[in-house]
Amino acid sequence: MARLEGKVAIITGSAQGMGAAHARKFVAEGAKVVMTDLNEEKGQALATELGENAIFVKQNVTSAADWATVVAEAEKTFGPVNVLVNNAGITMAKSILETTEEEYRRIVDINQVSVFLGMKTVIPSMQKAGNGSIVNISSLNGLVAGAIGYTDTKFAVRGMTKAAAMEGANYGIRVNSVHPGVIATPMVVQEDTKAQVEAFAKHIPLKRVAQPEEVSNMIVFLASDDSSYSTGSEFVIDGGLSAQ
After folding, report:
1. I want to staple 126 with a disulfide (CB 3.0 to 4.6 A). Which of 57, 132, 182, 197 is the partner?
2. Other CB atoms closer than 10 Å to residue 157's CB: what's the count?
3. Lipoprotein as a keyword (predicted)?
4. Helix residue spans in the chain (DSSP H)
């Protein structure tokens, strides 16, 4: 039997990149998937390609109203939600002296506040379902230092995951964080950064960057009943970078 048979999942930021890989893998594993993103054209195209077990809802993840709409659409189309993958996020690589207050607040809203809103809105649906698994996508920079703003928010996701896991345990809801290293998404391997990424890969113990599908495999495990005793934990997928 497919590992996610009978699961209803919401995956944010799933129009492209890692989120799209997650959506494809979830449908292949038997889940019914609500894909969300601001990119309506790409999101709708992928949902159409994936067939009757996927729908697309345009969403601004920083909006509580949009979150309520997404959960309502999920329940109306597929039933109560079992799985939430908080995947949407942005990067920023500026020094603290160059970062404006507006830029800082934006990355906090998208990378951190959205995770809070998602968990807060989805947990009541999971209570209806009788169980749930929340997977919050943090980063290697949720464990070790990186750029200001990005590092801060990814550490916050790690902390929120642990706090929510303690509360969610009372409802049969598990909450874990995933910490990817360098992943071969279009944003990472575009022409102007490709050579830099290839050079950096030589310093990764496994000597390569990861494919998005390798992260998807980890997320499927956490969404499935195979990880039924895992909650409040960090799952690192970085080729050994953080072990050095």
Report:
1. 132
2. 23
3. no
4. 17-28, 40-50, 64-77, 101-108, 114-129, 150-168, 191-201, 212-223
Segment 153-179, tens digit of pLDDT: 999 999 999 999 999 999 999 999 999
> Per-domain residue ranges for the chain?
8-236
pLDDT tens string 82-114: 999 999 999 888 999 999 999 999 999 999 999
- Candidates 104, 150, 171, 229; catalytic one: 150
User: Is there a catalytic annotation at residue 150?
Assistant: yes
What confidence category does residue 188 fall into, taking pLDDT thresholds of 50, 70 and 90?
low
Amino acid residing at 174: R
Task: Tell me which CATH homologous superfamily contains domain 8-236.
Answer: NAD(P)-binding Rossmann-like Domain (3.40.50.720)
Residue 61 in 3-state DSSP? coil
Q: Residue 183 gets which letter from DSSP?
A: B
